Records
---
Amino acid sequence: MAYNPNKELKLYYSIKEVAQMFDVTESLLRYWEKEFPIIAPKKVAGNVRQYKKEDIENIRLVYHLVKERGMTLQGARQRLKDNKETIVNQTEIIDRLTAIKEELLSMRKALDYIT
C-alpha cells in the first residue's frame, strides 16, 4: 500500500489519486462511500469527488479493517461504530511500526553494502 499518513497532503485529492494511494479501484472507493458514512468526499460539478485528509484517514481505517484484517463490511462498520478511537490508535501504531521496519531494512541494506 502506497499511502503514507506522515506525508504532506494536498487540500484535495481526486478519486484516482486516492485509489492509487491504497492500490484499490475507484469503484471500490465509491462502494465504500455508500457503505461507510464516515467516507464523504466533497462533490463538485459533474459529481467529481474531492477527498480531504479526513476522508483519506477514514478510508485508511476501512482499508485496515477490510483489507488488512479481513473483516466483512458489516463487521468493519460495527467496529467503527463501537470503537473508532481504538481502530485509529491501532492503525497509527501499525503505520509507525511499518516506517520503523522500512528504516531498519534500509540501514541493514546500507550496512551490507559497506561490508
---
Amino acid sequence: MALTQQQIQQVETVLRNSLRHKFQNYNPEPAVMPFHTRLLGQDRMALFSFIHSLNTNFGTSIFEPVAKALALSTFASAESQQTAGNQISSEAHRVIQNIMDGLAIATSLPNKIEEIKAIRAVCQTGEMKTVKPTKVDIKLVGHDGTIYLFDIKTAKPNAGGFKEFKRTLLEWVATTLAANPRANVQSIIAIPYNPYEP
C-alpha cells in the first residue's frame, strides 16, 4: 500500500521536527574514554556520541510518531506511550508464569492464540492486584474494536531480552482483559526494519 501525500508530509514533518529538536537540545553526557579519544580523535568521538544518542532516541522521537501518523488514517485511534491497564488477577499472573516456565524448559511452544485464551479464562479470577506494566509504545484501536499493543524494539534486540519482552506482552494482555474480558487484544513486538536485509 503506497503512502498518501498527506502521510508523506506527516512523516516528513515528524522527521524534521525530531531532528531539529535533537540538534537544538543535544547535551552530550560526559564520558571519559582516553583510549578511544587518542586513537580516533576528539572530533570523531563527539560525532560518535551524537550519532549514538540519535540512534538511541529514534524509538520515541521518530519510530513512534511515524507509526502513529501512519496509523491515524487506518485505525479508529492511535496513541503512543499508553498504559495497557493497572490490574491483573492472581490467576492470570499464575498462567503467565506457567507459560514462561513452559517456554523456558521447552515443554511448550509459543502459541499466542492459546496463551490469550488461557489468560482470558482467568483474567478476573482470584485477587486483583495493582501493577505498573511497561508502557505500550503504540496503542491502536481498529474500527472493529480490536486493540493492538505494540512494543517497538531496536533493530537488533538482545536474544536474552526476548524472555522479558514475552512476559511484557502477556502482562499487557492480562491487564487489558482484566478491565474488559471480552476485548479482542493483540500484543506485538515491532522491529522497524530488517538489519540483515536482503
